[in-house]
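Changelog excerpt

This revision adds worked examples to the README so contributors can see how folded entries look when concatenated. The first example is reproduced verbatim below.
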Amino acid sequence: MNSLRSLFDPDRRTYSKVPEITVWFWVVKALTTAMGESTSDWLVHTLVPEIAVVLGAIAFAVAIYIQFTKDRYIPACYWFAVAMVGVFGTMAADVLHVGLGVPYIASTIFYGIVLIVVFRAWYRVEGTLSIHSIHTPRREAFYWAAVLSTFALGTAAGDLTANTLGLGYFGSIWLFAAIIAIPALGYFRFGMGSILAFWFAYVVTRPLGASVADWLGKAEGVGLGAGLVSFVFAAAIAVIVRHLARTGKDTPTDQLVGPPPGLGPEAAEATA
């Protein structure tokens, strides 16, 4: 109990818990969104849906716990957490529609409001939404709440465009590919703030990746099957994350230059 309490000690300081934002970040993020969608579909249709949701919740909780126990960014731990958020976030969105009969437009609006509430609370408490500021358990808790909300929102939005609006999975791919160009152009050409551009792109990669996974896996698209699609994406994630762990290409700068911020002399010496 004491060790668990220490993980959430507001005075506990760590290295940055989020990787540097490189091309690799967006590649793996997109793969996890696609893998989360296909894995969720495969579990729900292979197992009893209620059991699948419980297993998804347990895997999510375990992954987040492992991530919180670390004092720095570790590729395998971080991306395992993101992948499990992808699976459980998909289930959370699907429960509203499939389990409770909530229309996709309503679930999209609901999760959009949830995300706004998370961002507002995060900013009011911490004064920033920057992912480069994830040095305390409280900020990390806000970060993962935001990530989970973006996955649920993106799943609902992708289903909205594919089904309610009738674009289908392939049409949704093109729609979200065009939308994701907005933060890219805004940041690189028109001076959009880095925080806004990041979260804008982060939200949109979810429905983009999910649409790709659905198009590849479902009979309405290529029809490869959710199980095969999930395995292929999971294997690709594993290969890239192993590469990142070996090369350190996305290691946060603060892990390379000194002890975690806020550590006293004795702790800093121990870290060294």
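The second example, added in the same revision:
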Amino acid sequence: MSQAGMSFPGILASLTTAPAERFGEAPKRGRIAPGMDGDVVVLAGDPATDVRWFGRVKYTVRAGKVIHSGPARSIDR
């Protein structure tokens, strides 16, 4: 996505708020806020500094439970 010219905020929205809105889930999903479902993907690094961190998932939490735990791989520079 970044190679196609998308900005970090655009990529983040395409992975969070945009799908929630598209599938009618925006009242409960797509953001971290009180009253939301709280499904979260924890990355191994900050994608604002390098978008490749989006591909380095450390944990996935759904309904308050860790459902995926992956290796915290580094970014090849």
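Reviewer comment on example two: Residues 12 and 59 are 17 Å apart (CA to CA). The chain has a mean pLDDT of 88.
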